[in-house]
């Protein structure tokens, strides 16, 4: 997801790393020594190998984006964080990097996400007209949790959501429309009433629950299973949209305007056939509309895309 100016539309960089093959074949941490010592320690703090690999990949993507966008030598890169309470990773160039030169280091904006061994980065270079008055530190310096994004400055947010993460705990996953509705209601503080109804009604894309006299038929059970599967995919799609937006703003799920942030025309990405590779992607969908306090937000662009399921 990206938030851009009307006058200027910066290009958006998106990179993905699938670490599943690495974790399955290699217990080491390749290229770890190329990171700053503090980042190396942060990677090694994770207990599980797959989490260390995701953290490593996340850092490597951030370093690479900074290196290519700002033309900073790799060994001079240092990841900063915006002021509390947001603490978003960002790049604030050290004055030492430009001492004795007239070269201007571009201001950049990026965001990362990782889940189920997939790691993603979205980033953009802030146009000079905006960068002259806005730095990452200044952009998120307001500690007021009700603050809204500075829409005149490009901001990005990205989120990966694994819709089959419940595979290992199938007994706890909803298996009927009724259970799905009860599960969705748990998140009433995150979603608006309209979003909750849309998820529970499957966006009107699948048949209503079977009538009582037909409920025990094989076709009815298949329809129920299909409906629940789609409902869960729709739920996770809404969840990813919320996560990406609040990551763009630097807020947490406790943002007081969270339920006032609504998404409409949402379509859950269809399952993508493939060999479980990060190269297996569905068709991007850009038809989602964003609303805040009942007002359509015209300067927000959202794109959702499905990837192949874990093998």
Total number of beta strands: 11
The total count of helices amounts to 8
What is the terminal separation in angstroms? 27 Å
CATH architecture of the largest domain: Alpha-Beta Complex
Rg on CA atoms, Å: 21 Å
Approximately how much helix is present in the residues?
A: 25-40%
Query: What form results from the Cα inertia axes?
Result: globular
- Based on helices, strands and strand pairing, what is the structural class? alpha+beta
Count of structural domains: 2
**Main pleated sheet:** 3 strands, antiparallel
How are the strands of the biggest sheet laid out side by side? 7-1-11
Under CATH, the topology of the largest domain can be stated as Ribosomal Protein L22, Chain A
CATH homologous superfamily of the largest domain, by name? Answer: 4'-phosphopantetheinyl transferase domain
Q: What's the mean pLDDT score?
A: 83
Q: Which percent range describes the beta-strand content?
A: 5-15%
Please mark out the parts with pLDDT under 50 across 5 or more consecutive residues, or reply none. Answer: 1-7, 141-146
The secondary-structure element order is EEHHHEEEEHHEHHHEEEE
Given this structure, which CATH class of the largest domain is correct?
Alpha Beta
Enzyme class: transferase
Domain 4'-phosphopantetheinyl transferase: 155-264
InterPro entries: 4-PPantetheinyl_Trfase_dom (IPR008278), 4-PPantetheinyl_Trfase_dom_sf (IPR037143), AASDHPPT_N (IPR055066), P-Pant_transferase_sf (IPR050559)
GO cellular component, one term: cytosol
């Amino acid at each position: 997801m990206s938030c851009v100016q009307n006058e200027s539309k910066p290009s958006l960089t998106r990179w993905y790393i699938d670490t599943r093959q690495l974790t399955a074949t290699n217990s080491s941490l390749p290229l770890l020594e190329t990171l700053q010592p503090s980042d190396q320690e942060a990677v090694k703090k994770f207990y599980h190998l797959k989490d260390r690999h995701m953290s490593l990949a996340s850092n490597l993507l951030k370093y690479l984006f900074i290196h290519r966008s700002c033309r900073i030598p790799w060994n001079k890169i240092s990841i900063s964080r915006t002021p509390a309470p947001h603490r978003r990773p960002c790049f604030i160039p050290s004055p030492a990097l430009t001492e004795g030169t007239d070269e201007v280091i571009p201001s950049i904006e990026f965001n990362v996400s990782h889940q189920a061994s997939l790691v993603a980065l979205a980033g953009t270079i802030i146009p000079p007209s905006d960068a002259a008055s806005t730095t990452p530190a200044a952009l998120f310096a307001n500690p007021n949790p009700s603050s809204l994004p500075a829409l005149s400055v490009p901001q990005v947010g990205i989120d990966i959501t694994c819709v089959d993460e419940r595979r290992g705990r199938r007994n706890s996953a909803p298996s009927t429309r009724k259970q799905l509705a009860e599960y969705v209601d748990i998140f009433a503080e995150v979603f608006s009433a309209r979003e909750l109804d849309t998820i529970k009604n499957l966006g009107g894309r699948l048949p209503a629950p079977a009538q009582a006299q037909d409920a025990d038929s094989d076709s009815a059970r298949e329809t129920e299973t299909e409906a629940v599967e789609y409902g869960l995919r729709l739920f996770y799609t809404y969840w990813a949209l919320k996560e990406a937006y609040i990551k763009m703003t630097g807020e947490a799920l406790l943002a007081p305007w969270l339920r006032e942030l609504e998404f409409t025309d949402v379509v859950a990405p269809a399952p993508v056939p493939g060999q479980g590779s990060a190269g297996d992607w569905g068709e991007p969908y850009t038809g989602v509309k964003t609303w805040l306090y009942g007002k359509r937000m015209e300067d927000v662009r959202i794109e959702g895309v499905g990837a192949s399921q874990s093998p």
